[in-house]
Model the fold of this input.
Amino acid sequence: PSISRSQEQKLDNLNEGSKTSNKSLNRKHWILQQRRSLPIASVERRLVDEVRKNDTIIIVGETGSGKTTQLPQYLFNAGFCRDGKVIGITQPRRVAAVTVAKRVAEECDAQLGQKVGYAIRFDDATSTSTRIKYMTDGLLLREALLDPILSRYSVIIIDEAHERTVHTDVLLGLLKKVQDARLKQHKLDKPYINNVVKVDNECHSSNMKFAPLKLIIMSASLDAKGFSEYFCGAKAVYVQGRQYPVDILYTYQPEPDYVDATLITIFQIHLDDSPGDILAFLTGQEEIELVDMLVHERLKQLPERSRNILTVPIYSSLPSEQQMNVFRPTPSNFRKVILATNIAETSVTIPGVKYVIDPGVVKSRYYNPVTGMESLIIMPISKAQALQRSGRAGREGPGKCFRLYPESEFWKLIDSTVPEIKRCSLSNVVLQLKALGFNDIIGFDFMDKPSRSAIKQSLQELYLLGALTDDCKLSDPVGIQMARFPLDPIYSKALILSGEFRCLEEMLIVVAMLSVESIFYSPREKLEESVVIIYEMALLYSSPPVVFYCKARSAWKKFSSPDGDHLTLVTVFRAAVEYREKIRAATNKEKAIDKSLSRWCRDNFINNRSLKHALDVHSQIKVYLEQMDMSLSSCGDDVLQFRRCLTASFFLNAAEKQPDGSYRVKANGQNVQIHPSSVLFRTKPECIIFTELIQTNQIYVRNISRAWMPELSQYYDVER
Ligand code: ADP
Ligand code: MG
Done:
């Protein structure tokens, strides 16, 4: 964990001196030149004309051609923001919304949050003067709850539509309806002159409150047909990209361990190949942090002159001040190694990449329609994704892509990724659509219809959680309240219930801590499994990650609660806050406080980035609670009260011990194991409540507490 900090310092030192005004003038000039040389720049006029002429268009263009950063600026300059209207651009990923907004603000020579801003869940960097607003697709959906015709927007751009996230799909359906509603209003508003409707496609006439909504679908995949058909034959415009040849290299054999293979490939390129940055695709924060650590371990074994590698991680929950690091120019004599999730596939284009390492896997949501449960699994990518990944190596010159699988495997991959809506739990979608006034979910105009059984499962779950009435309407107040929280329905329910059980303070901490990836530093799941077996003999293994893990486990002991992982998380959170307040009493310098907290995390083997993110989420949800007049009561030492509340909230996630030590989920009979990282791994209580399901070679439940049986018996027949 100490590595990233010293890395940052290295970057800072190397980039020192670039702050003089001369340099900043140069930078402005350089940025302008960069903008002008983007492929999209040559079709600016044409694009603006097409948007004027059509209410809906589809823009297809290769990654890096300038769609996301340039088009909103073109439209702004063409007058689409007159009357104070806003151009909204949705992104499937938080990081993309943030980094692109920062870049565009710089390009416009504006302060972030003024003309150009972003809004993502729990982080709003916009103001009343914001005209170009980048946001996540989920956030725009939430805005529709408050403003059903999205009246502030003149243009909405659905970016990265090819990703087909569940939010994008719901938005597409919703925006079709919003467009209709706005058009109707618009016609009513129109001044009639001699029975001729004055045609005015530029939304600048001040009496027009409901100008038609311009909708732009942007995609990096060449297949625009599906979108065009869905939008009644909407026109597709193609932006020519620029692509240099990329050498594709495969392995001869399947790799048993892609993390190890990635590491070997990084060093092989570094030692044998010409200069150029490396982009490696990994599946998540934990894996990225592990590879980061291992790269630095191995660097120590190289001669001094070969240690010129700089690693930069990029993934969704990376604190925003660190996200821009990937865009900093690589210092001369250094090779940048970007460790990214599939965020770098199409959402963010990182300059300087010449080598791509593609292990061929991605972490995605998977929904089991039989059990009605959702989990995250690591699965093979699609052919389209493999092509996107290799394309990242040929943006600025010829490049190389190392696919860590044999060519025969490539041909077995599915052509393109199945839309998320067909492989995730729909509870959230159903709740939101109901709150938006769409009662007939099965009849909703989805681009790809989710299965009827998945919809029914979600309706049933929402009914059991009390969000729906007997006739399937949103219940008042529980359902309405639940829809207002930007959380999974089950977490919203937990917060609402904990008000009644007088342990909202504890539950709020739990929800915040569960909203981030891995609070505890844990080198890879696989390692954890093996460590449990070899724990006692750990000293025989001198491998640094194992030693690290053993030290970590003993550091975590002081936080662990006999009641389970949830109260353990509460203890960690409170210890961190207490420590921070102590430091704050001595100094009021935020940087110093930050630094101390990082050190505290390091000493306790707590993931600093995750903890900070959790602190952030905590204070944001608190704002929601205050707005809803919910008071933060604590159960104090009465942990039974908390366990009762946890059981009442998550009764759908209760599991009973079986004679062989595995567990059976009471709601659906699924067989699961307690994850080795749980504090209850060895205790194995009779009945547990879990809040996460993960699937590796086994199905594990993670974040577990002892269930409170008397409470549970209210939801299940005793004899089942
Ligand atoms: P597209 O949306 O078509 O994939 P973008 O508009 O995202 O393309 O990117 C256009 C160019 O801007 C790319 O060359 C990319 O490297 C550059 N770019 C985007 N964001 C940043 C940033 N934060 N810093 C530096 N360059 C950036
Ligand atoms: Mg883009």
In short: Residues 1-5, 14-19, 192-208, 524-541 have pLDDT under 50 and may be disordered.
